[in-house]
Protein 1
Amino acid sequence: MKNRSIDDVEIISIPKIIDEEGRGKLSVIEKSIVPFEIKRVYYLYDVPSDAFRGGHAHKNLIQFMIALSGSFEVKIDDGSNNKKVMLNKPNQGLLIPSGIWREMDNFSAGSVCLVLASEFFDESDYFRDYNTFLNYKKQ
Ligand code: TYD
């Protein structure tokens, strides 16, 4: 949605179950955690520390992004305001509504970025040009 702002981007806690016998942690994402039907799951890995990912916005797609391992920064931008969010906890996810430009960088070694998405892959849903995105937001 065109009128989404960076205030609509939310950190959501993912329940964490700590094993009583010290065998590690378990986090679970059930349908109720994210406000959309999950149609697709993908993940970024082997990302060099100097790489930039993202650099686009979506017309309809909603995403829930998790640093499953390691850390990285997400810059979110609604065309008027922007802010940076550090993702570094596997029990926290960033809900990015449609109509928000995002850029990811500063990936730590071995980091994994898991993304749950509300739609199947559709290149026509992307704004890959920042000025086109700005014009869309101003319309
Ligand atoms: P892109 O969404 O630009 O990645 P990122 O935002 O992480 O930098 O996608 C990179 C390439 O992968 C692009 O050519 C499209 C392709 N791709 C698919 O084919 N299917 C998918 O589900 C995704 C997310 C990307």
Protein 2
Amino acid sequence: MKIIVAVKRVIDYNVQVRVKADGTGVETENVKMSMNPPDENAVEEALRIKESNKANEVIVLSIGDEKCQETIRTALAMGADRGIHIKVDKAIEPLGVAKIIKKIAEKESPELILMGKQAIDDDCNQTGQMLSALLGWSQGAFVSKIEFVDQSINVTREVDEGLETLNLKLPSVVTCDLRLNEPRYASLPNIMKAKKKQIDQINLEELNLDINPRIEQINVSEPPKRKKGIIVADVAELVQKLKNEAKVI
Ligand code: AMP
């Protein structure tokens, strides 16, 4: 069984994001970039499935500019077998990403596609759901546990009422929650080994897909600055301020 893991290169979660002065987006020049955090959980889970002999190949796929190869290498250093880089120099919205992954899935025939529950740059939380619909495959979103049961998987998801367990027929698209596992660090020998692992690069044009944007980003702006906090002397003063100044009670 093959597993494809989709990993996105995003601004590192520790970076204080700055909005461009003209409101056309956020600064990405000279900013630390990393693998989208839930995608690390997806890579880790794929490796654990392979280590338990339920899969024999883990393929990492990333869509974006040349630098995405660094993100793919990170996953290869964690233990993935090979990478696929779809080279495109502009941002692609979730529907476009889903169409690209579908095309690769048709070529590679994986039984499982693991992705992050959402990308921390656009917070869309759409790509996995769109991909499973395009492929006509089963779908588990926000998954915090995966167990193999014969030719299917049981996935546990956190929902408002508690934990929901679903049985998914393979092939399936699963989007991973941060609670799924603790991603491993790459060891130095594995970082060295990863340099020799194969990454196939495909230009977006070769896939012959309509990924024209359906969404226009009109403006990006900073959230309003928060007022400085104050320390109150006691509960009575807190209640008085909530009533008379904040007017929330
Ligand atoms: P989103 O729907 O944008 O929140 O993204 C959800 C997930 O889709 C991410 O966690 C990734 O696993 C995958 N994904 C989105 N964009 C890309 C991309 N450019 N390259 C690879 N995977 C992506």
